[in-house]
Amino acid sequence: MLTFAARRLILSIPTLLFISFVVFMLLQLAPGDPMAQVPLTVPPEVKEKMRQALGLGEPPLVQYWKWLVQVGWIEPKVFIDWLTRESWLLGWLPDTQLYNGELRVISWQTRSPVMDIVIQRIPQTLWVVGIAYLVAILVALPIGIYSAYRQYSVFDQAGTFVTMVGFSIPPFFTGPLLIVIFSVQLGWFPSIYDTTHVVNDWASFKVQLQQMIMPVMVLAFQITAQLSRYMRASTLDNLNQDYVRTARAKGLSEAVVVMSHVVRNSMIPVVTVIALGIPSIFGGAIITENVFKVNGIGQLLITALFANDLPMVMTLTFIFAVLIVMFNLIADVLYGVLDPRIRYD
Questions:
Q1: FRET label pair with 192: which of 3, 218, 289, 316, CA 20 to 30 Å apart?
Q2: How far apart are CA 141 and CA 158, in angstroms?
Q3: pLDDT tens digits for 129-167?
Q4: What pLDDT sits at residue 235?
Q5: What is the pLDDT of residues 251-275, one digit of tens each?
Q6: Long-range pairs for 54-61 at CB < 8 Å and ≥24 separation?
Q7: Is the pTM of this model over 0.90?
Q8: Spatial distance between the Cα atoms of 133 and 278, rounded to a whole number of angstroms
Q9: In 10 A of CB 269, how many CB atoms?
Q10: Is residue 323 exposed (0-12), middle (13-18) or buried (19+ Cβ within 10 Å)?
C-alpha cells in the first residue's frame, strides 16, 4: 500500500503540471483586460506602465514559469515559516526563516498575496460548506441503507421523491425560497451571512448557528439527494449477493448481516463519490455563497473571474486540482481498507 501511494504521488506531479499549463493557456485566450476597471481618466501611458508592472508585457510562457516558481517554491517557504513560527511559540519546532522577501503570487485586483486572501476566506467556506457536507453524509447514508433494505416501502418511495426534488431544484431557486419563507415571512433567520461575526461565547455561537442554518440546508439538501441514491443503489446490489444469503443461513442476526457485511461492501463505490466531493468544500458553493453573501472561496473565484485576475484564478484552480488528485488517492487507499480483496501490489 505504501509503495502504491508513493508511486501515485510521484505520478501526480506531471499531472498537476499539465493541468496548470492547460488552464493557464486557456485563461490567456479568454477575453477581458485587467485594466478594464481602471478609470477612463487615467492616461494611456499610465495604463501601459501599470500593465508592465503586472507583468502583462511578458510572453505567456515567461508568465507561467514565474507563477510556477512562486507557487511551487516561494509559497511553500512562506507556509513553512508560518508553521514553524506558530509551533515555536508552542515549543514544538525551532523557528525558521526560509522566505527572504521574494515576490509572491500577487492578486492583480487587490495587490495582496493570493494565498493570504485564500487563507482569510477558507474559514467562512468551511463553516458553511464543510458542515453542510458533513450533515449530508450523516443523513444520506442511513437513508440510502434503509431505503434499500425496505425497497418499495412508503419510506423508500418518499425518499425517492425527495431526492428527485433535490436533484431537480437548483440552489439559486431553493436559496431565495428559504430567504422568503424563513427570513421575510417568519423572521427566524438572517438572510445575509455576516462574515465579520466572531464566536467567543455561547450567545455569539447561537447567532453563528442561526445564520448558518439556511445556507447549510440548501447545500445539504442537494448533496444528500446525490449520496443517498448512490448508497441505495449500492446497497441493493449487495443485498442480492450470495454471501448475504450464506450469512443469513449461518444464523447471523439481520443487523449483523446488514451492518457488518452489506454496508461495508456497499461503501466501496460510495467512498469515491464522497472523496471526490470533498474538494468542493474548499472550492465553496459558488451559487449558494453569492445568494447568502458568504464571503468564501466560491465568491472569491467569481470576483476574480469578473475582474480577469489571472493569478487569483490560476492559484485557486491549481489548489482545486491538488485537492482532487489527493482525495482520489485517499479514495483508492480506502478501497483496500474496506475490501480486503483489493491489493495494490
A1: 316
A2: 16
A3: 888 888 888 888 888 888 888 888 888 888 888 888 877
A4: 85
A5: 878 788 888 778 877 887 788 788 7
A6: 54/108, 60/24, 60/25, 60/28
A7: no
A8: 8
A9: 15
A10: middle
Amino acid letter, residue 328: N
Domains along the chain with CATH numbers: 35-107 (no CATH), 115-338 (1.10.3720.10)
> 87 CB contacts (<8 Å, ≥6 apart)?
93
Query: How far apart, in whole angstroms, are the C-alpha atoms of residue 24 and residue 64?
Result: 7
Whether 35 contacts 47, CB under 8 Å: yes
Going by C-alpha positions, the residue among 101, 104, 111, 118 that lies closest to residue 72 is: 104
CB count in 10 Å sphere of residue 180: 12
- Grid cell digits, residue 120: 482569510
10-residue averages of pLDDT along the chain (345 residues)? 75 86 81 62 66 66 83 82 67 68 77 83 80 87 86 84 80 80 82 74 80 82 84 84 81 80 80 77 69 79 80 85 82 71 62
Cβ proximity of 257 and 244 under 8 Å: yes
| Nearest alpha-carbon partner for 293 in 173, 211, 224 | 211
Beta bridge partners of 113: 106
DSSP 143-165: HHHHHHHTTTSHHHHHHHHHHHH
Q: Which long-range contacts (CB under 8 A, 24 or more apart) does 21-30 make?
A: 21/64, 23/314, 23/317, 23/318, 23/321, 24/60, 24/63, 24/64, 24/67, 24/314, 25/60, 25/64, 27/310, 27/313, 27/314, 28/60, 28/310, 30/308
